[in-house]
Amino acid sequence: MSAPAVSRRDLLKIGALGAAALAIPWQGVLSAKSASRIASNKIPRPYTVPFAVPPVLRAVRSDATTDYYRVVQRPFVGQILPGVQTPLWGYEGMVPGPTIKATRGRRTIVRQVNALPAVHPTLGYTPWTSTHLHGMPSEPQYDGYAGDNSMPGQWKDYVYPNSCEARTLWYHDHGVHHTAENVYMGLAGQYHVSDPVEAALPIPRGAYDVPLTIGDVAFAENGSLLWDDNSHSGVYGDVILVNGRPWPTMRVEQRKYRFRILNASIARGYRLRLSNGQPFQVIATDGGLMSAPQTVTQITVGMAERYEIVVDFAAITAGQKIQLVNLGVNNAVDYDHTGKVMQFEVSGPATDTRNNSVPATLAPPHPAMALTAGMSTATRRMRLERTGEPGLWSINGKTWKDVEDGEYEPLFARVDPGAVEIWEVENRSGGWFHPLHIHLVDFQVLSRNGRPPRPEERGPKDVVYVGENETVRLLMRFSSPDGPHGRYMVHCHNLSHEDHDMMTQFQVGAHDPDCDPIHAAPPSSAPEPAL
Ligand code: C2O
Ligand code: CU
Ligand code: CU
């Protein structure tokens, strides 16, 4: 393993380490106070901006089996910082994109129209896009495969079966080699699937069921987003956004709320806690409801992980304020205000007291959680590391370029439909954490360093936080004989790592032309037919 060049990020890391552990005198010189270059008085003080929830997208039409949506990926000028104009890219011209609501068993077809400019305004690359619905067992040609590129001016209809249990998913760009830039510009949104089990629960719903999409950005002098991926290590902003607002304040009533937390950051992990130390309940993970809620005082949320939590504000005095804070994780650069996320200001008694409880049993065991290690027919090992050229990330020494160079034939694994396997993922580095994401499947985290996983991880997952010097064992079933088959990606969800080039693929069953991820349903440049 060759030594990577010392980047600004490494210097910042030394600085942060110095501050925490050694308080060495030059710490102030390697300042990690802020990343933004815009005048500091343009950045609002934390907790001064009102909270907002993205709108729910309206279907273009619905028929007996399907809801049809149209989403345009377009540039727009937004105001993340009050009074400052920031060029952004958004689904439907908003950041985050509108929330899409689906029901298990009813299909959705989402037309994605790439109306982005021919080149990125400052970075100069062509923004081809590929839209991934993260958490959905889609067929390969609708899964946002890297290489299934829609160029500016093209559109593509994505078909989603919604065959999965109720859960919080998200749709985001997956354009090969530029996913990080495209998502940083704003191409991400939540997608919720409900089902009868979830709908029958007395848990908070409606206005009390609230998406929290968390991200971090930095600003250039002129108000545009500042891009610095620290030699492909990751982008670390000094401004924390919740639903596109910097450190917002949300007014809440004295009752329970359900928060659907999504870490949509490029490279920042969070360790979330309430400022008063109050416990809260985790009710769902990436793949949907846990069987029983887990009561915790903090959760670690790697990139792309989703946790649904219920927080009870009933005992908080009206007028009091509580903050959602970030205790930070190793190897994510901390700045002055990255320890703050958002604030809750308690207004007074609940105006609606229905659906205000969390039962001790939430759902029958999720299929991924009902698996046992004894059902596994193969154990595979995956080594995540930085190899070769500085800035190149690999899986078992291979990169996505190896897949491209092999005409998309090379596979990390070929598995039979319905097979159960254990994948053991190892991160031997002390310097990086890697949230590993496996497409198509929901898995169970069997162990973390030989010990039981964290309480919040004891539900169905599709991303696992593989920390420094950690080994994580995962158990999963790959589709079913009548489920989707073909080629699917697996990658690190630090999007800078993914783009450069920590991604490979596996194949379930046969690879047929009718499910070829690039050729089975290519994007079109023709005029759009009616949906
Ligand atoms: Cu959320 Cu392949 O990604
Ligand atoms: Cu995914
Ligand atoms: Cu990584």
Account of the protein in words:
The structure is a single chain. Helix content is 7%, strand content 37%. The chain has a 7-stranded mixed sheet, with no helix packed on it. A 6-stranded mixed sheet has the order 1-14-22-21-16-19, with no helix packed on it. The structure holds CU-O-CU linkage and copper (II) ion (CU) (2 copies). The site of one copper (II) ion has 6 residues, from loops. One copper (II) ion binds next to strand 7.
Give Rg in angstroms. 22 Å
| General form | globular
What proportion strand? 35-45%
Structural class: mainly beta
Helix content: under 10%
Bound molecules: CU-O-CU linkage, copper (II) ion
**Segments where pLDDT lies below 50 for 5+ residues?**
1-31
Average pLDDT reading:
93
Largest sheet: 7 strands, mixed
Blueprint (SSEs and pairs):
Layout: H1 8-22, E1 49-50, E2 61-62, E3 66-78, E4 86-91, E5 97-103, E6 107-114, E7 131-134, E8 155-160, E9 167-173, H2 179-184, E10 188-194, H3 196-199, E11 209-217, E12 239-242, E13 245-246, E14 248-254, E15 256-263, E16 270-274, E17 280-285, E18 288-296, E19 298-301, E20 306-312, E21 321-326, E22 340-349, E23 378-386, E24 393-395, H4 400-405, E25 413-415, E26 420-427, E27 434-438, E28 443-448, E29 463-466, E30 470-477, E31 486-492, H5 495-499, E32 503-508
Parallel strand pairs: 1-14, 3-6, 5-10, 11-15, 14-22, 23-26, 25-32
Antiparallel strand pairs: 2-3, 3-4, 6-8, 7-9, 9-10, 11-12, 12-13, 15-20, 16-19, 16-21, 17-18, 17-20, 21-22, 23-24, 26-30, 27-29, 27-31, 28-30, 31-32
Bound molecules: CU-O-CU linkage and copper (II) ion (2 copies).
